[in-house]
Write a structure and sequence with these properties.
The chain is of the alpha/beta class. It is built from 14 helices and 17 strands.
Length: 526
């Protein structure tokens, strides 16, 4: 019988040609460089590049071939480690890293890279380098880091605001007490007014610390933007220092905006300081205002101002200007171009937060050597400007007779508030903690009519609930630096927030109005 046939031997597919392999490398989405294995000054000599690496960097194949691979690297610290790896590496080992590459236009992109040894047909060794663009992922990571930092600063700012506002409450409160005494007014009226004015400005600075986190109490008023700039122009000129000047071009015919005046003052202060650091001797900062109408067809991007009437405020300098990379991070907390120890990176973040809270929009135009212009648009308000605050006057006499319980941890604030309420006729029980305050209330023969203190602490909320169980008509004045949630179990007309640092006159009027069932109107929200 015939012998069985042997199965046909399968032919191996033909080996891809060098041209086909090069074409495959050229179409890869990742950037690829093949470099000569011999080390030269600056790294490895580029022998081949694919289309992706040219698209990523903006350099052409002709411009890259023959150059060392470090030509496209923004940071050369990897060269020493790469050279040691090259001297000892086996074919199965790779060298990986990440960092910035330089584009032809001067910008940078963030990549990860892998170096692999490739043995040539004649025993020559080459190195294949692959680059993956991670710029978008890097930005997301940076955004997360900034968010975490922002949360940490928010927590810190809340604690600083609480402690500092206690001090300011004492400073401003005793200024009011002195201002109410005729003898003190005759001897030191000007000095008392100056101390009180400085205390009020310091309170505004505390609100600025909380501005970009949107946690501060807003006190918006209708103000004349032109007048606010004129009132502060002298201060800004002094901040610029010798050899630098400030100019005003206030062309807004209608200039009323609804803002917190102290916050807007801080915006102008920060922008002026930012401009000062960019000016050379003889430089100038120009503050301009004008009227602008935004129409529907002018909205081209998400985040553009909606249609309406706006007051335009520009802070322009003829300093050194900024590149696009700096502008991209300008309003981020902790971003600064100043030397270590020279800036916190919070100034422009505060500016951004205040403008946003005021219902406005901010934009920057700048170029290296061409100066910078910060443009702010604030909604125009068709209302008369609020009257300017007057100097210290006498404290009101409300002739109280009810029982007031104070739970205030700061002993100086507690003593001051207890003293002014006692002088006004109230029976005052004061303690440093909610637990001790509850003991005082239980020992007192009469029910507590009103509770004053920070209500964000769980023990304080428990104290208020306990008192309310025996006194359904209990009133509560919350003195928190940062507004918190209202008590849902207490009628809205029985509770109000009086944020620190508050004026003693405001405290007396608030207490009386709340007990009489006529709570004062709350500040308008921006």
């Amino acid at each position: 019988m015939p012998a069985p046939k042997k199965p046909a031997r399968r032919r191996a597919p033909p080996r891809p040609s060098d041209r086909l392999l090069a074409a495959a490398l050229a179409t890869l989405g990742e950037g690829v460089i093949i470099a000569d294995g011999r080390w030269q000054r600056g790294g490895l000599s580029i022998a081949f590049v694919n289309t992706s690496i040219c698209a990523m960097t903006g350099w052409s194949e002709a411009e890259l071939r023959g150059r060392p691979h470090s030509f496209i690297h923004a940071d050369l610290r990897h060269l020493a480690d790469l050279r040691r790896w090259k001297a000892k590496a086996a074919a199965s080992h790779t060298f990986t890293g990440e960092g910035y590459l330089k584009r032809r236009d001067g910008t940078q992109l963030y990549t990860t890279w892998t170096f692999s040894l490739v043995a040539g047909a004649r025993g020559n060794t080459h190195v294949a380098i692959t680059y993956r663009d991670m710029t978008a992922k890097r930005r997301l990571q940076e955004a997360l880091i900034h968010s975490q930092r922002l949360d940490a600063v928010n927590r810190l700012a809340g604690g600083v605001a609480h402690d500092f506002n206690n001090l300011l409450s004492v400073i401003n409160g005793y200024c009011e007490i002195l201002g109410s005494k005729p003898a003190a007014r005759r001897e030191a009226a000007r000095e008392i007014d100056e101390i009180h004015r400085a205390g009020q400005q310091a309170a505004g600075l505390v609100r600025q610390l909380l501005a970009f986190s949107r946690r501060q109490t807003m006190v918006p008023k209708v103000v004349s933007l032109n007048q606010l700039i004129r009132d502060n122009a002298g201060i800004f000129a002094k901040l610029l220092g010798p050899g630098k000047s400030i100019a005003l071009a206030l062309d807004a015919t209608t200039d009323h905006v609804l803002v917190d005046p102290s916050q807007l003052q801080q915006v102008l202060l920060n922008l002026t300081l930012n401009a000062r650091d960019a000016l050379a001797p003889g430089g100038r900062v120009t503050l301009t205002t004008g009227n602008r109408i935004i129409e529907i067809r002018t909205q081209t991007r998400v985040g553009d101002p909606p249609p309406g009437r706006y007051i335009q405020l520009c802070v322009q300098d003829n300093g050194r200007g900024m590149d696009e990379q700096t502008q991209a991070h300008l309003f981020e907390p902790f971003f600064t171009t100043k030397e270590h120890g020279q800036g916190t990176g919070l100034g422009l973040a505060l500016v951004y937060g205040v403008v946003q809270q005021s219902g406005g929009y901010i934009n920057v135009r700048s170029a290296p050597g061409a100066g910078s212009t910060f443009e702010i648009l604030l909604p125009e308000v068709d209302e008369p400007a609020a009257p300017q605050p007057s100097s210290l006057g006498t404290l009101p006499s409300t002739r109280g007779h009810e029982t007031v319980l104070i739970a205030e941890a700061d002993p100086v604030v507690c003593k001051m508030v207890a003293g002014i309420l006692t002088t006004d006729g109230y029976t005052v029980l004061a303690s440093a903690s909610p637990a001790k305050a509850l003991q005082l209330a239980r020992r007192h023969k009469e029910p507590v009519d009103l509770l004053i203190g920070s209500m964000q602490h769980p023990e304080a909320a428990k104290l208020a609930r306990t008192l309310h169980a025996t006194q359904p008509r209990l009133r509560v004045v919350a003195t928190d630096s940062v507004p918190g949630p209202r008590f849902t179990w207490l009628p809205a007309e029985f509770q109000i927030t009086l944020a620190k640092p508050y004026a003693l006159s405001a405290l007396l009027n608030t207490v009386r109005a709340l007990l009489d069932g006529k709570p004062p109107s709350r500040p308008r929200k921006a």
